[in-house]
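Researcher: I'd like a structural prediction for the single chain below. Treat it as a standalone chain; there are no partners to consider.
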Amino acid sequence: SDESVVAAIKRLSKTYAMLDRGPMLNETSVLMSMHVLQGRSAREVIDDLEALFARHYLDYRAKRPSEG
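Model: Treating it as a single chain, here is the predicted structure.
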């Protein structure tokens, strides 16, 4: 797809609305600058962002008592 990195961040932020973005901010901006300043492809950066959000989501789930 031709999704932009900014659009991907917005989409992931909605999908993972329960996450505290603070701890992710640094990694997110590193990825963003790799794309903007170093010309890394949006596709690669979006893949990394998806992995980043998923990893933080797993941490979030692990820290909560299981529900249901």
